[in-house]
Specification:
Strand content: 15-25%
Largest sheet: 7 strands, mixed
Bound molecules: zinc ion
Distance between the termini: 8 Å
CATH architecture of the largest domain: Sandwich
Number of domains: 3
Length: about 625
């Protein structure tokens, strides 16, 4: 406890001070004075050293004529030199200093530039433990023959592999030249040519301006399979066919989303399946969504994740939160659009079910969150922006937009959303921007449907506002009935119509099981439906949560297998949390598993689970 308290105090003292002058609470950058407009990357990917080496060249727009300094974000970077072009040709050295390292935000790189040059070049290398990169030995890949490296820049990890202004208010285009001696294929969040050969040299151009958190790179034994005219999938060879089958609807999803919200503005839309240690479900890297393999269920039942990442091509990537306090503008909009895509693709019954599940996960998470973290607009200054990645941004944000849709009707609301994307395309926006737009385009034009105090309630207070209508699903009502019959002994497990249930219906069934269910009844379900070891990761996860709570020891080995195979934080963290909560033997079991599994996890997952065991 003592160690934690000191660490926490140190964090507070160090973090708030140096950031106070910067316009973004999680960045040192002085982007109110000078801004990056374009980035050129020239990097060597060294698998032996787990290191990127080379330079980042930044094109600058000097906004403030009196500015004489460029401040960049870095974390764990070794800076070799900072160069500026000279009038007679060769680059010359610029003066710079690297501030003291701060655990959460890294180090400010302060470069003196009295002549306000148009370009500056930083020659650097990354640390093997860069928080935004994961280096996987061959053993941790599907094929087990080649190493793999991938990035995860959101929220503030881009600074651990590129020195830049790591603030979503700053947008820039980029081009990149990437080499690796392993002769593996590199893909980036840029134009990727599907016919590229794996020869260890790749070039990229991203011609639309993006914020730093959308910079992405992956290098591995990647193969391509087309899914349609403008979409396709990259994956390790052994995963490619299963992934192509699973995500076959991608091209149609793009069409459906365009019909709702206007043109897809990024050229191609490809998917890249990562090894199982990827900490998230998906990451909406523009033109190239990164995906966890845990959504390959074999039955296309988890494709709402594709709908989600695709939706980000409008909300988030096109119209971006100005800083992480407004994260709900990215994720609430995206969750809403995701649900509209699901409805258009698979019907309203499926969309209803997913909305009920979303509201249920919000309800569960609200019970655990401090009041201050329950409002849509957050105050994350001095804290890790990952703290804001809760169901509030996603599911409560979604619920607000659904509420507006219900009040105004789709004839009014759909064009309202579409225009939000059109007007703010390639811009970064705040909640105030949204509120001004909402007032002028909906509240004032159609008075009496939604009150301003309701809006304030959603944005700035905890809980769910009174006027919100809960989602409902007839299919789930039936599942609830079957569960009640089974629990009461009226229907044997074998007679449940569960073979026809969708993943969503299974999740509903499992979620409603009491935590005190006798072990024999858990065994009854398991024998008939083989839930322990289920190939569908969502169903397996929901089952393991119940197994831990009911003390169903038969599931222990499959839980261990699941936790050592998969590093997706959404699954890993709650399972460890349940085990730790029970204490005693269960906690020791969790510690044993974690000792084995931790080296295979991504740094983002490690940080979260470390915190849990330290409490
Ligand atoms: Zn998202």
């Amino acid at each position: 406890m003592l160690r934690l308290t000191f660490a926490f105090l140190a964090l507070l003292i160090m973090s708030i001070q140096p950031l106070s002058a910067a316009p973004d609470p999680h960045s040192y950058a002085n982007h109110d004075q000078v801004r990056i407009t374009h980035l050129t990357l020239d990097l060597e990917v060294d698998f032996e050293a787990s290191q990127l080496r080379g330079f980042a060249e930044l094109h600058l727009d000097w906004i403030d004529e009196n500015a004489r300094r460029l401040v960049l974000d870095t974390r764990d970077l070794s800076i070799e030199s900072v160069l500026i072009p000279s009038a007679d040709g060769p680059w010359k050295r610029a003066r710079y200093s690297l501030a003291k390292a701060e655990p959460m935000f890294g180090q400010a790189l302060r470069i003196s530039l009295p002549d306000r040059p148009e370009r500056v070049r930083v020659v650097y290398s990354t640390s093997p433990t860069a928080s935004g990169l994961q280096w996987l030995p061959a053993a941790q890949t599907a094929g087990k023959r080649h190493p793999f490296m991938f990035s995860q820049s959101q929220a503030i990890h881009a600074r651990s592999w590129i020195p830049l202004q790591d603030a979503p208010a700053v947008r820039f285009t980029y081009d990149a030249h990437i080499r690796n001696r392993a002769k593996l294929l590199t893909r980036m969040s840029a134009a990727n040519d599907p016919s590229d050969q794996a020869d260890g040299v790749d070039h990229f151009a991203m011609t639309q301006p993006i914020p730093s958190y959308l910079l992405a790179i992956a290098v591995g034994d990647l193969r391509f399979k087309s899914l349609g005219e403008r979409s396709g999938i990259y994956a390790e060879p052994s995963v490619l066919d299963a992934a192509a089958y699973e995500f076959a609807d991608t091209e149609q999803m793009i069409d459906v989303t365009e019909a709702l919200y206007g043109p897809y503005r990024w050229g191609r839309y490809d998917l890249l399946v990562l090894p199982p240690s990827f900490p998230f479900g998906g990451m909406e890297n523009p033109r190239l969504t990164f995906l966890t393999p845990t959504v390959i269920a074999g039955d296309r039942s988890l494709v709402s994740l594709i709908a989600h990442e695709l939706a980000h091509s409008w909300s988030g990537n096109l119209v971006t939160n100005v800083d992480w306090n407004h994260f709900w503008l990215n994720e609430g909009f995206t969750s809403y659009v995701e649900n509209r895509i699901i409805e258009a693709m698979y019907g309203s019954e499926r969309a209803d079910m997913e909305r009920v599940l979303s509201q249920r996960s919000l309800e569960l998470e609200l019970a655990e969150l401090d009041e201050a973290d329950q409002s849509l607009v957050l105050e994350l200054a001095g804290r890790d922006p990952d703290d804001g990645m809760t169901a509030v941004a996603y599911d409560k944000g979604h619920w607000l937009l659904r509420t507006l849709e219900q009040r105004y009707g789709r004839e009014i609301f759909d064009p309202f959303i579409r225009q939000w994307f059109d007007r703010n395309a390639f811009a970064s926006v705040s909640t105030d921007d949204f509120v001004a737009y909402l007032r002028s385009e909906l509240l004032d034009k159609h008075p009496g449907k939604f009150r301003d105090d309701e809006l304030q309630d959603w944005l700035h207070y905890g809980g769910i506002p009174g006027g919100a209508v809960a989602a409902s699903s007839q299919a789930f009502d039936l599942v609830d009935g079957y569960r009640a019959d089974w629990l009461a002994g009226r229907t044997p497990a074998a007679d449940l119509p569960a073979q026809q249930w969708s993943t969503q219906e299974w999740l509903r069934f499992l979620d409603g099981l009491p935590d005190q269910l006798p072990v024999a009844r858990m065994a009854e379900l398991d024998q008939i439906y083989s839930l322990s070891g289920a190939g569908n990761s969502e169903i397996a996860f929901a089952w393991y949560i119940k197994a831990i709570r009911t003390g169903y020891a038969e599931a222990r080995a499959p839980i261990e297998g699941f936790l050592t195979r998969i590093g997706r934080r959404k699954f890993v963290l709650p399972l460890f949390t349940e085990l730790v909560k029970r204490g005693g033997e269960d906690r020791r079991f969790a510690e044993q598993i974690y000792a084995k599994a931790r080296p295979g996890y991504h740094a983002i997952t490690q940080v979260s689970v470390d915190q849990l065991f330290a409490e």
